[in-house]
Amino acid sequence: MKKADARRVTSDWAELFPEFTVWKPLRLLRRIGPVLQGITLNRSTSGEQYYPTAHVHALTRDFPVVSLSLAHYQHQPVTAKEAVDVGRHAETFRAVAGRTEERSPLPLRRRPDIAEIVQAYRAAAVAAQRGRRIPTGIPELEDMVLVPAAAGERPLAEESLDRVRQIADGWSKYEAPMGWTDTQEWLAHLEERAGDPAGLAATVEEQIVQHGLAKVPAESGPGMMAP
Predict the structure, then answer these.
(1) 3-state helix, strand, coil in the chain (%, to 5)
(2) For the segment 119-134, what is each residue's pLDDT rounded down to a tens digit?
(3) 39 neighbors 17 (Cβ within 8 angstroms)
(4) Which among 14, 140, 151, 190 is most buried, taking Cβ atoms within 10 Å?
(5) Could you give the CA distance from residue 4 to residue 2 in angstroms, rounded to a whole number?
(6) Which residue, 38, 36, 49, 34, is CA-closest to 104?
(7) Separation CA 179–CA 87 (nearest Å)
(8) Residue 50 contacts residue 8 (beta carbons within 8 Å)
(9) Which helix (H) or strand (E) holds 167?
């Protein structure tokens, strides 16, 4: 994909979804409290196609990149990325954008609130547990607790933490989340972080600086952390 093509593709998608900010070429973002919601237009290896992905990223975790958490194609009956041919972008991108919006676990035309984001994390975490007795869906389980805690939604964070404990009760006693030797130790760490909104806010601010997100404005209001 040539630079001119990337600019055109980015501009066209930004025009369709004007509440998103162009963060980088092929990357649209908006900030909802401690969460980024994005539309990423990943290039194929050949550069002849791109793959639109609706996603979120929690700024409450120290992470080297803006992740594609809750990517829309991961939780649909048809779990495949849809490609857009760069040469046919003008004729096809609107239809693909419509399907991306339909399949997104969160609305793209309006800003979801923190409760909606948490519910999407919960749904993804529950889906990851189906038929398993080993810890899985750990990032979603952590995010569904830490995001509302960072946003000042303490009751919602406590409710999510209770759900995490219920899910953890079903795990094998011989297994623990990756990087932890004991599930109870992980749960205690999660509870400690959730009880430290100032620490979470500091992490969010550090991530904003690290990823160069200053130009992505934050939405504030009920259920959202002020900028």
Answers:
(1) 45, 15, 35
(2) 999 999 999 998 889 9
(3) yes
(4) 151
(5) 5
(6) 38
(7) 45
(8) no
(9) helix 154-169
